[in-house]
Amino acid sequence: MERALIISLKVLAIDIPLLTLLGGGLGWLLARRDFRGRELLSLLVQLPIILPPSVLGLYLLFALGHIKFFREAGFLFAFPAAALGALVPSLPIMIQASRAAFAGVDRELEEAALTLGRGPWSVLFRITLPLARRTLLVGLALSSARALGDFGVTLMVAGNIPGRTQTLPLYIYGQVESLNFAQAHIAALLLVGVGIASLCLVHRLEAGAHERLA
C-alpha cells in the first residue's frame, strides 16, 4: 500500500498546480470575458462531470493514442497518464468554483483601483484574488479530493500497474480482486479520512465567508 500511496501523492503534487492554473485560468476566462464560442467552451469543460468514467477514459485513451508524440514517448500506461487521468475529471470542479469566485468579485472595486493607477496584475493579486480566495480554495479542496479518488479514467489510460501507475483507488480494486479485504479496508479508510478532511475544510471556508458577509 505504501507504493500506491506514494504514487497517489505524486499525482496530487502534479495535479494541484495544474488545477490551480488551468482551472483558475479557465474559470476567470468564462467569468470575465465575452468571446465567440464561450458557451461551447463552458459546455465542453462541464462534460467530464456527466460522462461515465469509462467513456471519458475510453475517448481520452483513443485521443492520446492517435497523437504520435504521446505514442512514441510511452505516455500511455505510465505515470504521466495516471496524473492526466486524475486531472481530467477533477478539472471541471475547479473551473466551476473559480468561475463563481471571479464572478462574485465586485468589478467596481477593481475599476476603482485601476483609476488610482494600479496595473492589471497588481489589481489581480491585491484585490481580485484575495476577494475570491475562499471560493477558490473550496474548489481546489474538492477537485484535489476528486483527483485523489479517481478510478475509472486512470484505469483506462494508465492501467493498474503496481509500483508504476497503481494509485490508492486502484490498489483497493486489486486487493478486492485478490480477496484481501483487510488491506482494502485500510486503504479505503485512508481515502475516507481525506474526503472528510476536505469537507471539513470546505465547511470552515464557507462558514468564514458567511461570517464576513454578516
Describe the protein's architecture and organization:
The protein is globular. The protein has one domain (2-105, 134-213): MetI-like (MetI-like fold, Orthogonal Bundle), CATH 1.10.3720. The longest helix is centred in the last third of the chain and has 33 residues, at 181-213. It is an all-alpha fold and 214 residues long. It is built from ten helices and no strands. The relative contact order is 0.15. The mean pLDDT is 88.
Major β-sheet profile: none
Count of domains: 1
Distance between the termini: 46 Å
Low-pLDDT stretches: none
Helix fraction bin: over 70%
Please give the number of β-strands.
0
Give a topology summary:
Layout: H1 2-32, H2 38-50, H3 53-65, H4 68-72, H5 79-103, H6 107-115, H7 120-148, H8 152-158, H9 168-177, H10 181-213
Helix pairs in contact: 1-5, 1-7, 2-5, 3-8, 5-7, 5-8, 6-7, 7-10, 9-10
